[in-house]
Design brief:
The structure holds 2 protein chains of 2 kinds. Chain A contains 19 helices and 2 strands. Chain A is an all-alpha fold. In chain A, strands 1-2 form a two-stranded antiparallel ribbon. By secondary structure, chain B is of the alpha+beta class. In chain B, strand 8 and strand 9 form a beta hairpin. The termini of chain B are far apart. Classes of the chains: A mainly alpha, B alpha+beta.
Chain lengths: ~475, ~600
């Protein structure tokens, strides 16, 4: 048994590792740049924010602050066409464009040369003598800067064409930038003509060392430093704990209630199969099961929380109206009162499933010989049900328990939004929408851990309840 | 056997855990607050989202601002009704002088004087030193104040009057129309709270504002980093006793996702000024910000009188509330103009849209009045350009471009677009290719406004032979297309300010780059000159002329189809006397006056 648990804990760690890898790589693939997300939130401020240089400075500062200026992972599996240090180009857009261009051309030297020429011309265009026609200049510059984010040949060619047209409009501009423009277009032409797509056939592993984003995050995670939210700089564990307390309370009560109500229902229905009670509960539970939670929750809020329809029984939102320093008892009563409706909404859909499973379990056992024997030797009905039948019928319920732990923490987004409960569901959705990856990672790691623990507990319970299940190696 | 008693004790334990938000035991009678039908002098105000942090220099969140404006004071702030700059911490508006000599020649000097009464909570007077300290925080490159810094980067130095520490002069490098507004609107920080160890004492502002010196200080002066670590921390953004300003309220508590409680200071220095200056008003004993994101919950909270004030009520809900006696008996509903502008952006570099006649034709195909009526239930005010009609320099000569299929057709024909292949869509030869006038309208898959708008346009566009394709994408994808300028048409909104408009950010060709916000590619040397000139022309009359020419230019080019400014929708409980405002967030709890009965 002990070695079994040990082995399972080992698997748990492996799983965590895999989950962390998947979470991390997904966050890298997902569109949207957290740095930009943070800066963009500030679009309506700033006079000189339109200043390109200034933007790049703020971008670099923010990226450094978040540790996003480091390589992503220990190593990169790529092709011989890619350079080792692409990550040093901090701007994610530029990096992306270059990466796509290498993908097309396979010739990093040519791509790098093109990028340098691009930057060179950009600098030149920002600092021209007043004799240059500004309409031509600004037209040319705007198209040039588009090249930083465009990599499709057609888009690039269209911009080259427009730049040429703008340049030809003004002789002073031509005098200033004809050569660098020529160099840029040659650099692009070279990238196309001297393409070495064959390089993509040779795999290459780039070793980035241990100072990389994943390593920094995961080692911090292992020592209990869960990082800081990108959005408001709060420690992730603080954010999680704030959300967790409410989700845990609400879900524990709901799960407990669901089991307390549905197990006796299921047992009774199973024992009295095809009775009126069985039929009525079956239909009733299935009707409940099929009522969508968001709809019921909204109806409850509309009808039972305001005096509008004369039944103002419950507070409409939140978990409490009292400040944290209110007397403990008052606060507990207030919280309980607030939680009645959300707990109800979480409980009723679960009833049908648990009750049906229990009923099924009972039906499987009730016809077995030992029950009949017990009856025959005169054991009382209640005792037969609860002592002989119940424990043997518990198997399907235990299977459900495996999902209880993660469910208790996951939080229900719908319920939390409608009743304004600051729980895990809302935290997770907000974090995903805001690309607040440190928070998303932690939520994922937490649910992975709990799912594994839930399954482990269920397995152990099987053994505890049914001696036929054993984790010892069978001796032949 | 299920041990019911065990389960119940577990339940009880859970409640105890939840009840113990704060482990300090309190007496029974401290806070028996039941906000429903509240009669006490506490304003319960709804916030539609949680603020990120209550540390003004490092947040740009609107809701953070709503909260910190009760805690911190500016030198001057905008009057909530007239939008005039009005003294708060300063005695009066600054003396403004052009600097003619010295290192900042060509710049402007602003001289302020702080109220004689003004003191921090520990009794020390608020002086120019505190303003200098605040600006040093701002220009400390290690502090995460990037956006605020870029807004104020024309500041160079501060000089405190040797004889009167309450009088000081801020020097700037250039003339700037909203210079006074920008400087005056910096919240002032107390050094004794935020820099208890005096880490920034030995450094001067002028060194921090000089890029070269700043760069060397970054390496030679580790205290900059040390200070920033403290200042950027969570503690100074949400903890009682660590978030402190010169204003009338202190942060009492912040429960994530639930509420933020602010308490009125007992002896606040500004008490003597509240009678004469509405911006110094601080009438409620307590302000409780309730964080309620969901609209249904908000409406329920109104019906239940759980909150005293909320803005940003959904348009449809607002219309329903107006007809609901339960609400109108207890609340006054207001719809003041909001400083916001909805528009449709057109990519002026797109071959199909680069002719301004085509863009104007499309404007003729947008029935703005119908959009306001159907999507906003009439709660909007038509706009024809970037300048609000309430501004003194609004160009009255420009008339709305009417919805007219006939005019649209005529303009398209004039620009060479005719239906040559009789497929119902006009076409034209561009670069040797026959192109149909099919326009992609970018909308986010869950953006209600964009999608509804697109459906209305889908009906009107084909009447003039223009085909509209609605391209529904995820927001990040939409943003990517705006950035790479591969879009054709999209809808959006701008938040606007009561200050004189500075067009640089949205209209200047300097902003026409992937990360800039001149997304439609508007601009020419002439428009750039106008924008630059407007920025430095301090004479209002002269500036008004420039503004009008600029509006004319935008009107002719039609890079955007201007739609409307929506009305804000808010409810204020009748137990308070209060006025709504057009300034965000459209209500100011500090001004709420509890009615006698």
């Amino acid at each position: 048994m002990f070695t079994y648990i040990l082995r399972r804990v080992g698997i748990l760690f492996l799983t965590l590792l895999v989950v962390s890898l998947i979470a991390f790589s997904l966050s890298k693939i997902a569109p949207g740049d957290p740095v930009e997300r943070i800066i963009r939130g500030r679009e309506n401020v700033g006079s000189s924010k339109s200043d390109y240089i200034n933007y790049q400075k703020i971008y670099a500062e923010t990226a450094e602050l978040l540790g996003l200026d480091k390589p992503t992972f220990y190593f990169e599996l790529t092709t011989a066409a890619y350079p080792d240090t692409l990550y040093r180009i901090i701007d994610k857009d530029h990096q992306n464009t270059l990466s796509k261009l290498i993908g097309q051309s396979g010739n990093w030297e040519a791509v790098e040369h093109y990028y340098q020429q691009l930057r060179h011309l950009d600098v030149l265009l920002s600092d021209l003598p007043p004799s240059v026609d500004r309409n031509a200049r600004t037209g040319m510059r705007s198209d040039l800067r588009d090249l930083y984010v465009n990599y499709e040949p057609n888009a690039i060619m269209a911009r080259f064409k427009r730049m040429k047209a703008d340049m030809d409009k003004d002789s002073a501009l031509t005098a200033e930038v004809a050569r660098p423009y020529q160099q840029l277009s040659e650099a692009y032409a070279k990238m196309v003509t001297e393409a070495t797509p064959a390089k993509h056939w040779f795999p290459k592993i780039i070793w980035n060392g241990i100072d990389n984003q994943y390593h920094n995050w995961f080692t911090n995670f292992l020592v209990g430093n869960f990082g800081y939210s990108y959005i408001n700089g709060r420690p992730v564990e603080d954010k999680l704990l704030d959300a967790l307390q409410w989700t845990l309370i609400i879900n524990s009560i709901a799960i407990l209630l669901a089991y307390l109500i549905s197990i006796p229902l299921g047992v009774y229905a199973g024992v009295h199969k095809d009775s009126t009670f069985d039929k009525v509960t079956t239909i009733g539970l299935f009707i409940l099961f099929s009522l969508p939670v968001f709809w019921i929750a909204t109806l409850l809020v509309v009808f039972f929380t305001t005096p509008e329809y004369g039944i103002d029984l419950f507070p409409p939102l939140g978990v409490t109206d009292l400040p944290p320093d209110a007397p403990l008892w008052n606060r507990m009563v207030d919280i309980a009162w607030h939680l009645v409706l959300p707990v109800f909404c979480l409980t009723y859909p679960a009833l049908a499933l648990i009750a049906r499973q229990m009923r099924g379990g009972v039906l499987n056992v009730v016809q077995l010989d030992f029950i009949r024997t017990a009856r025959a030797k005169g054991v009382g009905k209640q005792q037969v049900i609860w002592k002989h039948l119940f424990w043997n019928a518990l198997f399907p319920i235990i299977t459900l328990i495996a999902s209880v732990l993660p469910a208790a923490l996951a939080g229900s987004v719908v319920i939390e939004f409608i009743f304004n409960i600051p729980g895990m569901g809302r935290l997770t959705i907000d974090a995903i929408n805001q690309r607040d990856w440190p928070v998303v990672y932690m939520v994922l790691m937490l649910s992975a851990t709990l799912t594994m623990i839930g399954i482990l507990i269920a397995d152990l319970l099987y053994a505890a309840i049914d001696p036929r299940v054993s984790f010892k190696k069978k001796v032949a | 056997m299920i041990k019911l008693s065990h389960l119940l004790s577990l339940l009880a334990l859970l409640f105890v855990v939840a009840g113990c938000g704060n482990d300090a035991p309190t007496e029974e009678n401290t806070t028996e607050a039941t906000p429903k039908y509240s009669t006490e002098n506490t304003v319960y105000a709804r916030l539609p989202a949680e603020p990120d942090r209550i540390n003004p220099l490092i947040t740009t969140n609107t809701y953070s601002r709503a909260v910190y404006e009760n805690i911190f004071l500016y030198l001057l702030d905008f009057d909530h009704q007239t939008f005039e700059l009005t003294p708060q911490l300063a005695k009066a508006r600054p003396e403004i002088n052009e600097i003619t000599s010295g290192p900042f020649a060509g710049g402007v000097a602003y001289t302020y004087e702080i109220h004689d009464e003004a003191v921090w909570d520990n009794g020390t007077p608020i002086t120019g030193e505190d303003v200098a300290f605040t600006l040093k925080i701002l220009f400390n490159p290690k502090v995460n104040a990037g956006p605020a810094r870029s807004y104020l980067d024309f500041i160079r130095d501060i000089e405190i009057d040797a004889t009167n520490p309450k009088r000081f002069t801020i020097s700037t490098a250039q003339k700037y129309i909203i210079g006074e507004a920008a400087i005056s609107n910096v919240p002032i920080y107390p050094a004794y709270i935020y820099d208890a160890n005096g880490l920034l004492n030995d450094i001067s502002l002028v060194d921090l504002t000089d890029p070269a010196k700043q760069a060397s200080l970054e390496t030679t002066y580790p205290q900059l980093q040390e200070f920033a670590n403290i200042f950027n921390s969570d503690e100074f953004a949400r903890n009682k006793g660590k978030v402190m300003g010169a204003g009338p309220y202190t942060l009492e508590s912040w429960e994530t996702g639930q509420q933020i409680i602010l308490n009125r200071k007992k002896d606040w220095w500004g008490d003597q000024l509240t009678a004469t200056n509405e911006l110094m008003a601080a009438r409620p004993d307590q302000v409780v910000y309730k964080i309620i994101t969901d609209q249904t919950a908000t409406v329920a909270a109104l019906k239940d009188q759980l909150i005293d004030v909320t803005a940003q009520i959904d348009v449809k809900d607002f219309i329903d509330l107006q007809a609901n006696e339960l609400v109108t008996d207890n609340y006054n509903l207001y719809a003041p103009n909001a400083l916001q502008l909805y528009y449709i952006g057109l990519n002026t570099k797109d071959p199909k849209l680069q002719d301004k006649r085509v863009r104007r034709a499309i404007t003729h195909l947008v029935d703005v009045d119908q959009i306001i009526e159907e999507l906003f239930y009439g709660l909007g005010e038509r706009r024809i350009g970037p300048v609000a009609p309430s501004k003194p320099y609004f160009n009255e000569a420009l008339k709305p471009i009417a919805f007219s299929v006939a005019r649209a057709k005529a303009l398209l024909e004039e620009a060479g677009w005719v239906d040559s292949n009789s497929n119902g869509v006009v076409d034209k030869e561009i670069d040797g290719e026959q192109v149909e006038l099919e326009i992609d309208f970018l909308a986010t898959s869950n953006g209600k406004f964009g999608n509804n708008l697109a459906q209305l346009l889908e009906v009107t566009f084909p009447q003039a032979g223009v085909k509209l394709n609605i391209d529904r994408v995820e927001f990040t994808v939409l943003y990517e297309q705006l950035k790479t300028r591969t879009f054709e048409m999209f809808a959006g909104a701008w938040a606007q300010d009561p200050t004189p408009d500075d067009f640089k950010q949205i209209w200047h060709t300097d902003s026409d780059n992937p990360n800039g916000t001149n997304r439609v590619g508007f601009g020419s040397a002439a428009s750039d000159d106008l924008i630059d000139q407007i920025r430095v022309t301090l004479d209002e009359e002269e500036r008004a002329g420039l503004y009008k020419s600029f509006q004319q230019m935008v009107y002719e080019e039609q890079p955007y189809i201007f739609l409307f400014a929506p009305k804000e929708r808010l409810a204020i409980h009748k137990r308070f006397k209060a006025d709504p405002s057009s300034l965000r967030p459209s209500f100011f709890p500090r001004e709420f006056e509890l009615k006698a009965d």
